[in-house]
Amino acid sequence: xxxxxxxxxxxxxxxxxxxxxxxxxxxxxxxxxxxxxxxxxxxxxxxxxxxxxxxxxxxxxxxxxxxxxxxxxxxxxxxxxxxxxxxxxxxxxxxxxxxxxxxxxxxxxxxxxxxxxxxxxxxxxxxxxxxxxxxxxxxxxxxxxxxxxxxxxxxxxxxxxxxxxxxxxxxxxxxxxxxxxxxxxxxxxxxxxxxxxxxxxxxxxxxxxxxxxxxxxxxxxxxxxxxxxxxxxxxxxxxxxxxxxxxxxxxxxxxxxxxxxxxxxxxxxxxxxxxxxxxxxxxxxxxxxxxx
Length: 292
Hints:
By secondary structure, the protein is α/β, with parallel strands linked by helices. Helix content is about 35%, strand content about 15%. The chain is built from twelve helices and eight strands. Strands 2-8-7-1-6-3-5-4 form an eight-stranded mixed beta sheet, with helices on both faces. Strand 4 and strand 5 (about 125-130) form a beta hairpin. Helix 8 runs parallel beside helix 10 (about 175-195). The longest helix is centred in the middle third of the chain and has 23 residues, at about 175-195.
């Protein structure tokens, strides 16, 4: 199995806000074109440690990225390293902490904001360093990377939902409306990205609480959404993916050799060739489980 993949991490998006407010993604699920699941993030429920979890499959207590102030290159084998070493093209439109984890640390905006270097794990990067960098600009950056370089692996990481949560808290119209707005912008891009042949996985690193922060074990901090789009996913209601398994699952989708934890139940069975059998039955998408 070899696919092109878009890994979309919506920073700070709590499960309940995604479940109740992201109408376009929910419409895709109702129409059988996507599936949704509920995940529990690892602890501490902080961004930089969970970026590492999402890109390496390692829990923060094992990766050594224990809090947001740990500013160094990752010492783990990341999805970007695996893809680059296999000759695939990698790209990211993302917060500068991803550059610090996988390319160069510390981040220097004049050197690193625009990155095009085939030797780096993230070969083509459009990094930003302000939490209020507009999400619509970020999506334009991602779409430009896709059109220019046709990457096999594209990370897309918007920050405005998390920024609104830190300013106004979980139970605020500003936080909910930030999620609604991003969902509306996704409606502009997802059809084109799917038509270009990409398998798309959408999730979050952590949620948010009413104290305008996160880091602990409250359900609103730990419960995050997962949406999957594309015919290389199984769309099985029985799948129960874990956050540490997303990196390995995407590595399998990319056709990479790896020993990372993965959720095989999320992946469709390999397609047969014409010589093996008659054409397979059309894939019927189901809405995934764990969404109570």
